[in-house]
Fold this sequence. Notes:
- The complex is a heterodimer of chains A (345) and B (325).
- By secondary structure, chain A is α/β, with parallel strands linked by helices.
- Chain A is 29% helix and 21% strand.
- An eight-stranded mixed sheet of chain B has the order 6-7-8-3-9-10-12-11, with helices on both faces.
- In chain B, strand 9 and strand 10 (232-238) form a beta hairpin.
Amino acid sequence: MNPAFATASDPVPRPPLLSVNGLRKHFPLKGGLFGRTTGVVRAVDGVSFDVAEGETLGIVGESGCGKSTTARLLVDLITPDDGQILLESRRLGVDLDVRELRRHVQMVFQDSYASLNPRLTMEDAIAFGPRVNGMPAAQATALAHELLAKVGLEPRRFAGRYPHELSGGQRQRVNIARALAFSPKVVILDEAVSALDKSVEAQVLNLLADLKKELGLTYIFISHDLNVVRYISDRVMVMYLGEVAEIGPVETLYANPTHPYTRALLAAMPSMDPDRRTQEAPLSGDPPNPINPPSGCRFHPRCAKAESVCSAGSPGLFKLPSDRHLVACHAAIPGSGHSLAGVTA
Amino acid sequence: MTDPLVEMKDVTVRFHGTRTVHAVNGVNLTLMPGETLSILGESGSGKSVTLKTLLRLLPENRTEIGGEVRVAGADVLSLDGRALANHRGGVVSMIFQDPMLALDPVYTIGDQIAEAVMRHEGISRQAGLARALDMLTRVRIPSPERRMKAYPHEMSGGMRQRAMIALALSCRPKLLLADEPTTALDATVQIQILLLLRELQREFGMAMIFVTHDIGVAVEVSDRIAVMYAGEFVETGTVRQIIREPRHPYTKGLLAANLHGAVKGERLDAIPGAPPALETKPTACSFAPRCLVRQDRCETARPPVVNFDPGRMVRCIHAVEPAMA
């Protein structure tokens, strides 16, 4: 889709574990007397990225930016309008079916309680997936016990409990155990630690790090908490109104944010230093509605550096000279016509 | 010396029902006019209950409140009828996490604010509407004239939050209580609201108690921080003292869990376990079961309350002799 997003120059010679190309999902808005389509929510609009084996990709952005829709598209909980999803170079719908994709790509959601069936005990909840996929019951239960122990819940105490008998942190551990029941390659964590108290969140982050090391997992970690994303991710993707604004290695992105939106997000973090409190909000107003996104660069109405070129055309992701750092901003693309950009490519 | 605006002495709150919950267990608090205090704690620590005690918002028939609560000279626990109604919104006002629950969905923003001012100050509807417009301007709602006639559902999240702040401040309260007002907001909107609150607090010269679970937010808005755990303040101090010289193991754990400056790939110093259920009145240090530096005496007796100077308190045996980590 996007010629700038070339992975050819990557130091990793192997193809990416998971690859997404031009992913698009528009939700029609029904309304009026006859349920006509009155508008379109451009939830995800041409998103492309790769995830290498063993890395953690953080996805950040504000509500409505499409980060959760992207996650749901990746496991086909929502069918994309357009775009390709490739797992180990096999394309979904061509030589990879949904069942197999979901065995390899598992997901953990924010609401630990809503994710569990209230009538299933923890061992049944974890064993359910393997059993419907043909594993004998006794073996599935044994696997459930093993996984409970792996996530730090003693099987003898927790196997027979129901979701309401567990704390939020414990339930989230069960959800992680359940996601691991298929020995997946990729685990998508959609705000999986956001609802937890800070002290419990740190425990679960430690658990995730341990599991990753032990099982060689690849994570896609979606969060609005930039401190957590910085801690856990190898690379970070910033989304704005259904598009990728910037993507790059975590240290590069935090030390040298190039997109004005990334800069604003980082500047909006509370300072943690009583002598250097934030004096000015980096952005005014709320994030706009993805129903009728602005023309051109979607960030331009809120951007201090916007020029006429920004409203005229979408910048597309441009590969910066530094390692694996891409940004969709006219001001960073030489020859774009923006006064801050160089003239030649 | 001026009198303190808020004085809470040994306040306890107990809920009765199918089970008893000791939600607040002896909170002492002094707040001067114009001062901002953040109460920092996790869910279930009693921070919101402490706040609601100041407005007597807890269900009367199931709640047993002990101790003494004075706000601007009035004994809050004995207020009733008209005096309580004047106290709520007139002297003390509150903003919440979810503005949709605080605003009435069937009245326009302008009418709601005007009604509150008319009730408290006995002014005409016209003067009330003028005050509403003035408040919407002060909270920087774009095109306030138009928003006067808007219903809550017609506004965005950040704008509703601003409207709720306008409503809360419309009667010039001496104390504003803020219960996680920015938690549900996006990052770029959160910082706008925090800066707005800081500015309005200065402009109106009011005191503020800000409840949050986010240390960063507390640093942005407050002068002092009280760290709450299992219904008690375990440490209080100025923002600098709490951030730079935390003395209670729980405060230290919270600071580490904030991940500010955490090194990638290094294990986090997570506090193990979970907060207690509070079904019985604590007889020992409530944090002891999770504490990495606990000693035998922590589990047999209540920890000492060590006061350094006014406003600096640590409830831990290690407060004086720093613990070996």
